[in-house]
Design brief:
The chain has one helix and 16 strands. It has about 270 residues and is mainly beta. It has a single domain, classed as Outer membrane protein transport protein (OMPP1/FadL/TodX) (Porin), CATH 2.40.160.60. It is globular and about 55 Å long.
């Protein structure tokens, strides 16, 4: 009982601090969560239009650990299928532990229009387990993404998650699901050096601003540095390894109050 109370307190603090991003959404492979304009990487539940840039089929697995507490971890898997007409993505994410957990399943469609712009639409079904009533509650959440290529070196991305402010209701409580609008830019100083900026706005929360740099060395190793802030300034660092058909990513961030977040991801390109 004491452990559950501690976990509940941490979850409440975490939700209040990170209200721009829902717990169930896995961490992005882009540093500082600057994924809305990242045309090089598609991360499930972030911007479905990035699915349109896939040229090959890929399978990805992501594990996000918050504050070295297993009960606050998010596990996800994604599968992207490319075709000449439209690309399709399947996503699955799990957050929580036995007393409280969330599961989200996503089905997305995206198309790249001659590298001028890309559009994506994803349907996410979120279900949550409530121990008080020993029951599950679910809701369908649409997600819309857009990516526009302004010039050969400048790209703009936009994403909206849960635009209709859908919530989950039980006999005892109401779980508010964040409605997040994201806008970001990507600037290529060179093929090796990329700079991304992003702004997120949750309907009932403060703005979140993020910035990140990614530098590729020897075409196989990349170093990532960034930071984001809403109520607090959070520095981030990461590394990526391209081993041909396998791509590994490891990102870390340090919150001044809550501690360390780590996320590890691996992708396999068919």
């Amino acid at each position: 009982m004491k452990k559950n109370l501690i976990l509940f307190s941490i979850c409440f603090c975490f939700q209040f601090t990170y209200s721009q991003i829902s717990n169930i959404i896995p961490a992005s492979t882009s540093i500082a969560e600057t994924s809305v304009s990242d045309t090089r990487n598609w991360t499930a539940f972030h911007n479905p239009s990035m699915l349109g840039y896939l040229e090959k089929k890929e399978l990805g697995i992501n594990y996000n650990n918050r504050f070295i507490i297993p009960e606050l971890s998010t596990k996800s898997i994604q599968l992207g299928l490319s075709s000449n007409l439209i690309n399709t993505g399947f996503s699955f994410s799990h957050f929580g532990y036995s007393q409280y957990h969330e599961i989200m399943i996503g089905l997305g469609f995206a198309r790249n229009f001659a590298d001028k712009f890309a559009m994506g639409l994803q349907f996410n079904y979120l279900t949550c387990y409530f121990a008080a009533s020993n029951s599950y509650r679910g809701a369908l959440l649409p997600q819309i993404g857009l990516s526009v290529k302004i010039s050969p070196v400048l790209n703009i991305g936009f994403n909206v998650n849960n635009p209709f402010q859908t919530n989950l209701k039980t006999e005892y409580s109401v779980k508010r699901i964040p409605s997040v609008f994201s806008l970001g830019t990507k600037y290529d100083f060179s093929p090796e050096l990329v700079w991304r900026l992003q702004m997120d706005k949750e309907i009932s929360s403060n703005y979140r601003f993020a910035s990140g740099f990614e530098y590729s060395m020897l075409k196989s190793v990349s170093i990532k540095l960034g930071a984001y802030g809403s109520d607090y300034f959070v520095p981030c660092i990461g590394v990526g390894l391209n081993a041909g058909i396998f791509i590994f990513n490891l990102n870390c961030e340090l919150h001044p109050i809550l501690g360390i977040n780590t996320s590890a991801a691996i992708k396999y390109h068919f």
